[in-house]
Structures are given as C-alpha cells and as structure tokens.
Amino acid sequence: MRVIICGAGQVGYNIAAYLSKEENEVTLIDTNASLIAQINENLDVRGLVGHASNPDTLNGAGANDADMIIAVTHSDEVNMVACQIGHSLFGIPKKIARIRAQSYLQPAWSNLFSRAHMPIDVIISPEVVIATDIYQRLAVPGTTFVASLADGLAHLIGVVCKEDCPVINTPLNQLRNLFPDLSFKVVAILRDNVPIIPSQDEQLMVGDEVFFAVDTHHLKRTMAAFGNEETEARRIVIAGGGNIGYGLAQLLMEKGRGIQIKMIEHNEERAQFLSDNLEGVIVLRGDALAQGILEEASIENVETFVAVTNDDESNILGSLLAKQRGANRVVTLVNNEAYSSLVSPLGIDTIVSPRATIVGTIMQHVRKGRIKGLYNLRDGFAEIIEAEVSDKVSIVNAPIEDLEIANEVIVAAIIRDDEVLMPEAAQIIKVDDRVIILAAQEQGSEVEKMFSVQVDLF
Q1: Residues in the chain with pLDDT < 70?
Q2: CA torsion sign, 147 to 149 to 153 to 156?
Q3: In this structure, are 9 and 117 located in the same domain?
Q4: Is residue 178 one of the residues assigned to a domain?
Q5: Do 56 and 111 belong together in one domain?
Q6: Which end of the chain is less congested by CB atoms within 10 angstroms, N or C?
Q7: Within a 10 A sphere around the Cβ of 389, how many other Cβ atoms?
Q8: Are 13 and 101 members of one domain?
Q9: What's the pLDDT at 21?
C-alpha cells in the first residue's frame, strides 16, 4: 500500500514507523527539514520537506499513485486542504484527517466533510478520543487500561498486581480451575517495563501490569479476583479545562448520576466558559499546583483526580500533590513518552498517552480486511485487534491449534451470537465470529492478512 503522511510530529512519526515495518511504501511530508532528516535516518520511509497542502509537494510525494493520505499536521486547515487536494487533483481513494477545533465538528456543519464538499473519509478528533479513553478508565475503577470490545460485550483490561493480589505466583494455566465460573484470559504482561506475551506456565508477580480479556458480565468479579474491588468514583476533580477536560466533564455529566465534579482552570476567560456551559460542575479558577486551590477542591475527599492540562510537568506534579494530600486515585495525561517509565514508581495510578491513543485510532482505519477495532497497549508493544470472520478467509472453520500463527499472537476471545467465548486450542472459528486477537506490534500485518479478502479503501 502507498501512503502519504502529512506531519512529522509524534503521531505522524509513529504511524510511519508502524506502516514502514509492514512493507508499505510511505512518504512523510513536513516543513521542518531537521525532522525530515531524522526520519530519513531512522525509518525506512521517504521524507519530503514541503507544505502538505501544496499540490506540487503532494505530486512530488507520489499522490497520483497513493492509496491513502493521512493528514496529521498541527493545523486543521492544512489537514483539510491536503485531503481536498488529494481527492480533487489526484483521486486518492482514502483520506484521514486530524481535526482539533471542535467548531468544525458541530452537528450543524456535518455536511462540510461530505463527498460533495470537502471529502474526508475519516475525521479523528484527538480531544474527543482521549476524553472517551479516560472516561472508560473511570467507568472501570482500578484499571490502567480499558478497551470496550464487540459493542461492549467484552473488555480488554489492564491492572497492576499489588501485594494483596490473590493470583500472585499462580501459573496462568491454573486460573481457570481457580475461577471456573469466570470468563477471562490473560494475554499480556508488562514487567519492569518489559513486555511479555506469556505462555500458560507464566506466573504473575507483584508489580506486574497484567492485561486480560473478559466477558463484560464477569468484569467486576474478575477485577475482584485480581484484588481490585474499587467502586466507581463519585467525587472527581479535573485539572485542566481545555477540550479534553471539557469533553470528559460532558461525558461524566451525561452518563453518570450522582457524580460531583470540580474543575480547576487557570485561565479566567476559559473558566468562565466552563462555568457557563457545564451546569452542575463547580469551576475553580487557579493553578492545580497551588495548595489553596487543592484545599478549595477538598482534595482529601476526592476519589479520582484527573490531570489533563497541556503541560506534562504540571500534570505529573499536580497528580503527585493530589495523591499526597488524600486523593484516592490519580489519572495523568503524559505526552512525552520519556516520562512514562519514570512516573509510575512515583505513585501515579494511570498514565494516559495521547500519542498511543491517537495512533491506535488511526491504525484502526488503516488496517485492511474486516478489522472492526484496534487498540495499542502501552506505547505500542502490542495491538489488540477485533476482526470479523468472513466466509472467504483462510481461517474459517479451522481450529485455533491449526492456525499458522506466531507465538506472539494470542486468540484472546471469540464473540459468537452475543456470547463471549474464551477459546481453547480445539475451538473452531466460524463465519461471522468476532475474534479478539493480541499481537506483538511486528505481527500486526500478519493478523491483518488472516482476515483480509481484498483491499477495501472505500
């Protein structure tokens, strides 16, 4: 597949890295010559210095033969124009654009991105995606990662094994005997920041971050089996009233009852906007690092503190202060991946990586075949892929034990007729099954091929 990526920031760079490893022809465009030089040196892609919305630049990038354009520059307008030119002048079949400004996404202007006007096939709104991701984690308290699968019938959950975890030092192959009435399967472990795709002889250790697939009906009891029986937070403080914080507050107010939300925002004009538009939310104007503001927020009574300002250091320090002063749990937005391995030992419960979340969302639309969902695990060490089985793919009517798949690929669950199955080796895959697979990053394209009949770009 020939792909043009516009924008060489963290998201563009990581998408290029993904696609180049899978033998796609990737051209990455950016105006920053030093970024392009770095890309040409580190990745097997073609870096091109230029403006992504310039027809000459796109022509030089091979737009006439491109299958897809992914526009993720820092400018919404450049992203939109790049897709428009890609469609109008070069006939690029699939166009994906990152759009940050919420005004473009209002229902009143929904016709803007139609094929007759500005034809963009997939619009990614980072703030909406990230707010939804945080909301899901709050809905399942005590988790480090949450992905809803198969229209909510199953979940992929991440939790940290603490000293009181009942299944510490227990081989994975014994878990089904210990909990015969629970439907779950451990699929990955992160131990001392080293990813493990476990064998059934593997044992869980204190401090492991363990990822498991679970039938949603069994979610609460499975969380208890891992020593986590936290109740859903009813008292929440959100530090940062930008689009992410605003979107998260809206979700909490729409979907939760009896939730008390306080927001901390330092900008006076923005604080007034939040107060005017979030009925029932208490808005405090000030700095989340200030002791007085935390006292005003009654931080000692808060169950969850969520830090989503646009400054990593403020998010990290604010979360640590909130935890020190009595907040039960903290959720922290961290953009710089260099911080990720440093902050967990400090006591931060959940780290949200915008880059990993957005890359996973975009890759879901890049994958071919009948891929219905795709999620990245912690900095992309593995992918969770949800795919539908057609009658024309090679794996249909085959038992799992006969599939020619690498050890780094695990069939985590099968959803059949709204029933969630945790498959054994002899389980046969049938037409219309939804299969949940964990694959190490380098195996993602192989899983894609298992479910692909032909390239579907429309």
Answers
A1: 257, 344, 367-369, 379-380, 452-458
A2: negative
A3: yes
A4: no
A5: yes
A6: C
A7: 21
A8: yes
A9: 79
Q: Are residues 239 and 333 in contact, defined by beta-carbon separation less than 8 angstroms?
A: no
Range of the domain at 264: 235-352
Same domain membership, residue 415 and residue 348: no
Q: Which residue has the tokens 């299944």?
A: 167
**Cα dihedral angle (219, 221, 227, 228), rounded to 10 degrees?**
50
DSSP code per residue over 355-381? HHHHHHHHHHHH--SSEEEEEEETTTT
Q: Which residues contact 269 (CB under 8 A, 6 or more apart)?
A: none
Q: How many CB atoms lie within 10 A of CB 352?
A: 23
CATH number of the CATH domain containing 339: 3.40.50.720
The CA angle 134-139-143, to the nearest 5 degrees, is: 70
The count of domains in the chain is 3
Among 124, 140, 162, the domain-final residue is 124
Could you report the per-residue pLDDT of 80-130, keeping only the tens digit for each?
Answer: 999 999 999 999 999 999 998 888 888 887 778 777 778 888 899 988 899
Residue 379 · residue 406 · CB < 8 Å: no
Distance between CA atoms of residues 185 and 16, nearest Å: 32
- Report the side by side order of strands in the sheet with 350-352: 282-285, 260-265, 235-239, 304-307, 329-333, 350-352
Burial of 192: CB neighbours in 10 Å, binned 0-12, 13-18, 19+: exposed
> Do 338 and 243 share a structural domain?
yes
Is residue 314 located within the same domain as residue 419? no
**pLDDT given for residue 369 in this prediction:** 58
Distance CA 192, CA 237 (A): 30
Greatest pairwise CA separation for the chain in angstroms: 64
pTM value? 0.81
pLDDT at 454: 41
First to last CA, the chain: 14
Same domain, 89 and 6: yes
